[in-house]
């Protein structure tokens, strides 16, 4: 999902669903995905974020300025009452990033201009949740004190509760993909039907959205392989292929699927080799020195270079203690 929403063309589709006026005012073709995250390590399994820097044209003055669009993807199934506070902290971190950049460039304070931020909460859980994204929601405040708490507006998309018609109304490829995502846990017959409808809807995508069409098909393939049982993979791939009317497109997608399966097999083999070499190093060291410190085991498992693991294995034969292990691979002469 993070990969999908980091694509500028899909940002346009998301804004068309949530805020059509805003979508018309921003130039997503010039959007820049910002390669950073503000999610703490202990929350990475529950949520992720995507940040775009995008030009915005004021519909009144015509002036163009840059704004940030901050997308918080909420994966956890249970609604979180602290969402408003966490979102505010992430927004503040984004401004802090800009402040540090001004300081680094020694920009005079009189020329500082913080970018406006449009927060979007993308909720993927099944439980109904209409969040109060204010910090005041966590306070027991009398009315006179409420005006002293930070307030901001955020766009909100609860994927599983949003009607399919709203997702696909604009005909953007992202809408059809999200429609299938809503049914990721559905029975086989419903999933088949959703895929057929989505691929048929994608057939109407204009030529200028060709890249978005290809990425949508690719994402549907990923969705099948990550969210459905292995027994369904081949059948659902065939459902996608059979639903593509144009012969040339169908052949193109067939080649894409074959390429991805081959790449997955190669990647799996490579990962298996790395894991086996890690275990070889650890097994040899345990034979020589007994139980290994957890931090040492973790460090070995963090090495994914086959060359470096081979070097560690050779060192393990000669080592008299764990202190003899050097963690950098030898340079080739």
Descriptive keywords:
alpha/beta, 5-stranded mixed beta sheet, 5 strands, 52% helix, disordered C terminus
Q: Percent of residues in beta strands? A: 5-15%
**What structural category characterises the helix and strand content?**
alpha/beta
* Main sheet attributes: strand count, strand direction, barrel closure: 5 strands, mixed
- Contiguous helical run count: 13
- Cα end-to-end separation: 44 Å
H-E order:
HHHEEEHEHEHHHHHHHH
Instruction: Give me the side-by-side strand order of the main sheet.
Output: 1-2-3-4-5
Low-confidence stretches: 329-333
Q: Give the overall silhouette.
A: globular
As a whole number of angstroms, the C-alpha radius of gyration is 25 Å
Helix content: 40-55%
What does the average pLDDT come to? 88
**What is the number of independent domains?**
3
Q: Please provide the count of β strands.
A: 5
Nutshell version of this structure?
The protein is of the alpha/beta class and 333 residues long. Helices cover 52% and strands 11% of the residues.
SSE blueprint and pairings:
Elements: H1 2-5, H2 8-18, H3 20-25, E1 32-33, E2 47-57, E3 64-74, H4 83-104, E4 117-123, H5 143-146, E5 155-158, H6 164-168, H7 173-181, H8 188-202, H9 210-227, H10 230-243, H11 247-289, H12 294-301, H13 306-318
Parallel strand pairs: 3-4, 4-5
Antiparallel strand pairs: 1-2, 2-3
Describe this protein's structure.
The chain is α/β, with parallel strands linked by helices and 333 residues long. The protein has 3 domains: 1-162, no CATH class; 168-245; 271-324. The chain has helices at 2-5, 8-18, 20-25, 83-104, 143-146, 164-168, 173-181, 188-202, 210-227, 230-243, 247-289, 294-301, 306-318, and strands at 32-33, 47-57, 64-74, 117-123, 155-158. It has a 5-stranded mixed sheet, with no helix packed on it. Helix 5 links the parallel strand 4 (117-123) and strand 5 (155-158). Helix 7 (173-181) packs antiparallel against helix 8, helix 8 (188-202) runs parallel beside helix 10 (230-243) and helix 9 packs antiparallel against helix 10 (230-243). It is globular, with a radius of gyration of 25 Å.
